[in-house]
Amino acid sequence: MQIIDTVPFFLENYQPSISFLKEYYKRNPCIFHEYFSYHCKDTEERHNSSIEKYQDSWSSIQRVHEMIKPIIQEVVQANEEAYGVIFPVEELALTKNTLALIGSDGDINEI
Hints:
111 residues, alpha/beta, four-stranded mixed sheet, 4 helices, globular
């Protein structure tokens, strides 16, 4: 199992455009296939709505991401110590496991 965090790429490269969102989704096809299959629709209307929401949610996205990173690390460490199981934390990996990504409503989703 891997913990995959796509949030840093999003925060460092974000452009308020559908073309950026499509590139973000294309960089992580397995992740977003899952996301769009179960969480929201992959439509232009939805993407435009997302772009509007991101501006108001930006500081919250950053704050939640900073808060969740040490929690993820604590869980990883606890599992290593308790069960001898190692969960590598990777950015932008394409394997579906536990995922952290920016959702359509400007929230950080864990799948």
